[in-house]
């Protein structure tokens, strides 16, 4: 199956429910002078480009949680190659017209992940009559480190470039450019919330789904410049784009690894004494440029994105992902819990006492509950309160045998890709729930209504 895009013809692979295209460039390879620069248009090619195999991924180091295989969600690590600013497209029929379009932004703490990971298979969406697009974007130092002489928020700029590509090309895949739903999970959800509040996204998407993320996980220039200074000092170079362009990708990944080690980075608490990532990542979107000229939450409260229908929600036990498999949940002491939260919050002891620390409850359970609210649920609630348009809230509650309703557990259900997710969901996950959740996302993309009440919270599972 051959489709014509603005850059040239592409050949896809027939699947049971339609056609799949992988590694379609939406921007030029970010190499040479294009490194740390805004995404440039993808160059044209002659002939037919074969897109039946997954392409390169953004530079990253494969990260694991002890005792847990996350490759179904984050992929197997870095697939080298410069041409990684790409999308994968699943369509029921390239010859169709007017199909709803979903564009997915993957998570990975802004340092890892790929849109081509097994869980993000688009088969179920095409079965439901929708087109799915998954996006790869610059990560870590390449995507979110502000450097003199370079552009800021490059990962978000990449996502915007991908959305422009969708506007220009999705008709050729049977999709409707006037009916685009942008959705993402974790770092991808933060990205979606930021773009909801960005003036540069106007008209590029019409609905949004924010899965376990929100608009408060952003940094001011002062905090991110501390990251820049720390990385540059470790590399022994000036904090400029021209200096960083001379360094190999491997050297930058080594510097990133050093930054991510305990104690390896600067204090990232802001003027309120909060580390907005709660220690999960030094890299967050920057407030104060043309992508985010003001805090995205404030922009949304003032009416940005009011014409965009919104679904947002969390998993019931988000932080179990980080503390369940490691066994830390069972051995954490009260003192350790307070010390861990103190690195990110000015009143750690007071917060944890509010969740029952010191009242005979296990410190690990208290910590998981508090951090689930602080890192995820509170911000999602605020996002929905700020949004001036139609919105829906969900809570994903189905508990996997080992991981409970942890961070990311909804993903195999949203994509109805349980077969690719045994390491997360176990041996007998509820297939009916996956069909129900995927249908809700597909229905929302088509109509703006997932089939839920717009008041209260819809409980999934």
Summarize the structure.
With 461 residues, the chain is of the alpha/beta class. The protein has helices at 71-74, 123-127, 140-144, 154-169, 187-196, 221-235, 241-245, 249-260, 296-301, 320-323, 328-331, 334-342, 348-354, 363-386, 411-414, 422-425, 431-447, and strands at 2-4, 9-11, 13-15, 18-25, 48-50, 86-91, 99-105, 131-135, 175-185, 207-211, 309-315, 391-396, 457-460.
Descriptive tags:
globular; alpha/beta; Rossmann fold; ten-stranded mixed β-sheet; 17 helices; 15% strand
What order do the strands of the largest sheet run in, or round the barrel if closed?
A: 3-4-6-8-7-9-10-11-12-13
The portion of residues assigned to helices is: 25-40%
Relevant CATH superfamily: Alpha/Beta hydrolase fold, catalytic domain
Low-confidence stretches: none
CATH hierarchy: architecture: 3-Layer(aba) Sandwich
List the helices and strands in order. Answer: EEEEEHEEHEHHEHEHHHHEHHHHHEHHHE
What name is given to the CATH topology? Rossmann fold
The overall number of domains is 1
Q: Class, according to the CATH hierarchy?
A: Alpha Beta
Q: What fraction of the residues are assigned to beta strands by DSSP?
A: 15-25%
Would you report the number of β strands?
Answer: 13
What's the number of helices?
A: 17
Euclidean distance between termini CA atoms: 39 Å
Name the overall outline.
globular
Biggest β-sheet, characterized? 10 strands, mixed
What is the residue-mean pLDDT, rounded to a whole number?
95
Determine Rg (CA atoms, Å).
21 Å
State the secondary-structure class. Answer: alpha/beta
């Amino acid at each position: 199956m051959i489709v014509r895009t603005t850059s040239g013809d592409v050949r896809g692979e027939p699947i049971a429910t339609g056609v799949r295209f992988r590694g379609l460039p939406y921007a030029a390879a970010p190499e040479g002078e294009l490194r740390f620069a805004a995404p440039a248009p993808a160059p044209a090619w002659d002939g037919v480009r074969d897109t039946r195999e997954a392409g390169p991924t953004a530079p990253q180091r494969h990260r694991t949680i002890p005792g847990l295989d996350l490759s179904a969600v984050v992929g197997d690590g870095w697939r080298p190659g410069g041409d990684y600013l790409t999308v994968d497209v699943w369509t029921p029929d390239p010859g169709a017209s007017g199909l709803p379009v979903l564009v997915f932004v993957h998570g990975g703490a802004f340092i890892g992940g790929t849109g081509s990971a097994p869980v993000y298979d688009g088969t179920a969406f095409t079965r439901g009559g929708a087109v799915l697009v998954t996006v790869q974007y610059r990560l870590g130092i390449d995507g979110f480190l502000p450097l003199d002489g370079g552009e800021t928020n490059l990962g978000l700029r990449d996502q915007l470039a991908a959305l422009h590509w969708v506007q220009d090309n999705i008709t050729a895949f049977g999709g409707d450019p006037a009916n685009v739903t942008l959705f993402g999970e974790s770092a991808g959800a933060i990205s979606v919330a930021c773009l909801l509040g960005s003036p540069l996204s106007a008209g590029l998407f019409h609905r949004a789904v924010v899965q376990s993320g929100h608009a408060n996980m952003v940094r001011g220039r002062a905090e991110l410049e501390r990251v820049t200074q720390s990385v540059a000092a470790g590399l022994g170079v000036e904090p400029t784009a021209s200096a960083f362009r001379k360094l190999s990708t491997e050297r930058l990944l080594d510097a990133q690894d050093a930054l991510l080690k305990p104690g390896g980075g600067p204090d990232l608490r802001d003027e309120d004494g909060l580390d907005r990532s709660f220690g999960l990542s030094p890299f967050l979107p920057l407030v104060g440029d043309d992508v985010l000229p003001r805090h995205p939450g404030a922009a949304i409260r003032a009416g940005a994105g009011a014409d965009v229908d919104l679904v947002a929600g969390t998993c019931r036990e988000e932080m179990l992902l980080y503390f369940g498999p490691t066994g830390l949940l069972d051995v954490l002491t009260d003192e350790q819990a307070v010390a861990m939260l103190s690195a990110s919050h000015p009143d750690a002891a007071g917060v944890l006492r509010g969740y029952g620390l010191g009242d005979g409850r296990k410190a690990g359970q208290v910590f998981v509950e508090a951090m689930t609210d602080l890192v995820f649920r509170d911000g999602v609630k605020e996002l929905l309160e700020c949004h001036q348009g139609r919105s829906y809230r969900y809570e994903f509650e189905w508990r996997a045998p080992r991981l409970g309703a942890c961070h990311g557990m909804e993903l195999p259900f949203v994509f109805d890709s349980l077969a690719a997710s045994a390491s997360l969901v176990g041996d007998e996950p509820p297939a009916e729930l996956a069909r129900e959740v995927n249908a809700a996302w597909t229905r929302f993309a088509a109509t703006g209504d997932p089939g839920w009440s717009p008041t209260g919270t819809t409980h999934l599972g």
